[in-house]
Amino acid sequence: MSEPGLRGVLAAAAVGAGLSLSEAGTPAALDQARARALARAWGMEESAGTVLVLVDGLGMELLGQRMGHAATLRSWLAETRAARPGPGAGDGLEAAVSTCAPSTTAAALTMLGTTALPGATAMVGYSVLSPQVGPVLPEGTTPHPDQLLSLISWQGSAIDPGAWQPVPTVFERLRAQDGTGAPAAVSIGPARFAGSGLTVAGLRGTEHLGADRLEARPGLAAQALRRGTPLVYLYVGELDHTGHAHGWRSQEWLAQLERLDAAMAELRRRVPAGTRIILTADHGMVDTDAEHRITIPAVGALARDVVAVAGEPRFTHLHVADGDEDLAHQVAQRWREELGERAAWVGTRREAAALLGPLNERALSVVGDVVVAMAGRWVVVDPRAHSPAAMAMPGVHGSLTPAETLVPLLITRT
Question: Which is it for the CA torsion 32, 193, 109, 277, positive or negative?
Fold first, then answer.
């Protein structure tokens, strides 16, 4: 896979806000020179107060198909296109970037926050095999939810998310401002995100301003800018929640898109003149149904030798007995043969580095012995490891399709 553009968006936004980055201390992260080059490429070279809006679940294809319901975002798309003409101008791709594999929140937000690929952060899926259980399991073990660690909630784990994910975040690397007394950056989102596992892993290092209602967040962003904070990160999760519950083609999702659009109009109205607003997303989404759902225990060729199932239904980590590499190759081959065109990619842990980036020691211990990315609208589930609600979810993501991996990068100035 080519390098995901979302990787550099927060770092470029920081440079565009007039801030500079200290060295990360690891080649896995982007340095100041690379961040500055991206800021130039995206038209952010002129220093300005900046709000980076991250809309969870807003894929570029989804936005394009519902643009008639988002007048504000439609105008920002036109503004972005006009500022960055070039090859492909007019098809919207000049206002889009790619996210990482897997195209899921834990991986993508941590990549955004650190500029490092999932293989270097070990944030490689919605869930992974818990180190308290693995890294290998004996023959005869049955997949079970107690085997898993959620990299979103970290529920029931004594593991420190900051120790799990060692790459410094962009927020930690921001050099302090001189004389203003205001923080270099703040984050805005639901109050429960302050100190949450995912925040500590991928977005630590900045003050968090809690606002549970979407409509309250534009005002907080404007206040922070007026107090002298040059960079504001604003998270919107309502669209993703609705997509999971109802599917992105639903009327409920459309209502949330209209709500988002109204909030962005309010944000643009309230921030100081000259503010740069950047809108992007962590991933898109596809809708699925029972006809596109494959149940692992119901298919002998898929269930054989699998002792744990992690990840998510669109990007699944399979663990085999004793972590045996030869057995992993056999399982991968059986899955390729059984799924055929229903799978976009099937490979072993070593091969998965081509998707995830080079795997650090932690990632090597939790990435599946076999990794499966699904094609089209297909999902693969296991009722022994997945809840009924997770298996029946109509809106899903995590795989490699453009609907999941292509996200907007819209830029406007007030």
Answer: negative
